[in-house]
Amino acid sequence: MRSEKKLLPSISMLAAFDATARIGSVSGAARELNLTHGAVSRQVAALEFQLGASLLVRSARGVSLTDVGKAYALEIRAALSALRSASLNVITSPLSCTMNLAILPTFGTRWLMPRFPSFLREHPDITVNFVTRLSQFEFGAEGIDTAIHYGTPDWPGAECTFLMGEKAIPVCAPALWSERRNMAAEDLHKLPLLHLESRADAWKDWFDIHGLDAPRNTGTMVFEQFSTVAHAAVAGLGAALLPRFLIRGELERGELVVLSNQAVVSEMRYYLVTPEAKTEYAPVVALREWLLATIERENSDLDDPLAV
Questions:
Q1: What is the 8-class DSSP label of residue 60?
Q2: What CATH class has 2-89?
Q3: pLDDT digits (tens, 9 = 90+) for 78-124
Q4: How confident is the model at residue 270 (pLDDT cuts 50, 70, 90)?
Q5: Residue 260: what pLDDT?
Q6: Superfamily name with CATH number, domain 93-163+270-300
Q7: Under the phi-then-psi rule, with left for phi > 0, alpha for psi from -120 to 50, and beta for the rest, what region is 238?
Q8: 73/21 Cα distance (integer angstroms)
Q9: Are 168 and 304 in contact (CB under 8 A)?
Q10: Which helix (H) or strand (E) segment is 271 a member of?
């Protein structure tokens, strides 16, 4: 029992240390927590005593973290954040179910959000909180219930539900297209090519389909996110390989034109990833069923289905 208690410091101790570690000052932590300097110092000292470890280096110029303190601060920050989020959920929606959903920025804004009112109408009792994540993370440490992920189904300790594939087509601004009518695959060698960092081989794969070598020097630019590549293409900076379902608006408005209907299919896919402990959590089950039904319905209306 004594050992268990030692491993569970009080929230006041942890909050005092967290604030001091973040701000780098006991006085600053005291102001943030509305406590006295002495009260914060005592809480941190009591935490160090309980853990049997030195977390801070104290000097006349202030405080700094020990190596142990740096590592501990990172871990408890995530735990305190999860506690605050859980408390906020109870305060704001005490009678409803809450789901913390991690999304990809472009997929979230361009595909998910325009359709999400339908989910909320079907499930008015579910409160959804959104966060953005680009790569794998620790679900438990971040308090996230499920995530929409682009990649392969190899997330440790989680269930990956296939949602859709990704087929990218070459597009560019109308000004670039009008200068090169009846564009053939060879003509793309003459255009600047816009690359996405996470799909580095996409253009090479597209040219391989046509039995051509990818051009080495055509004013190549590399971008980190889909939305930036799309804006660059609209601005006429070059041709980009983009999934049709993420640029439907630009195509309908005539801001982008399709250079070829020959698509390159990515080896990676979109998945709903859920930690094993949350696979049967009612809001996650509802989201999973809604996503699959929505994608199936839209695929039945498309000549070029998403679920490749």
A1: T
A2: mainly alpha
A3: 888 878 777 776 666 554 588 999 999 889 988 999 999 999 999 99
A4: very high
A5: 84
A6: Periplasmic binding protein-like II (3.40.190.10)
A7: left
A8: 7
A9: no
A10: strand 269-275
Residue 188's contacts (CB-CB under 8 Å, 6 or more residues apart) are 170, 207, 215, 239, 259
Q: Is 175 exposed, middle or buried (0-12, 13-18, 19+ CB in 10 A)?
A: exposed
- Please give the average per-residue pLDDT across 258-264, as a whole number: 85
In angstroms, rounded to a whole number, what is the distance separating the alpha carbons of residues 281 and 298?
26
Q: Is 167-265 the same fold as 93-163+270-300?
A: yes
CA distance 231 to 118: 28
pLDDT at 289 over 90: yes
Spatial distance between the Cα atoms of 98 and 117, rounded to a whole number of angstroms: 16
Question: What is the pLDDT, as a whole number, of residue 217?
Answer: 58
Name the amino acid, one letter, at 7.
Answer: L
Selection from 225, 135, 252 nearest residue 240 by Cα? 225
Total number of residues shown for the chain: 308
For the domain spanning 167-265, the CATH number is 3.40.190.10
- Please state the φ and ψ torsions of residue 172, each to the nearest 5 degrees: -160, 175
Which residue's structure tokens are 């998403």? 306
Q: pLDDT class for 204, splitting at 50, 70, 90?
A: confident
Q: Do the Cβ atoms of 294 and 306 come closer than 8 Å?
A: no
pLDDT, tens digit (0-9, with 9 covering 90-100), for 132-177 = 988 888 887 788 999 999 988 989 889 999 999 888 889 999 888 7
If you average pLDDT over every residue of the chain, what do you get? 85
Q: Where are the domains of the chain?
A: 2-89, 93-163+270-300, 167-265
CB 131, CB 100: distance < 8 Å? yes
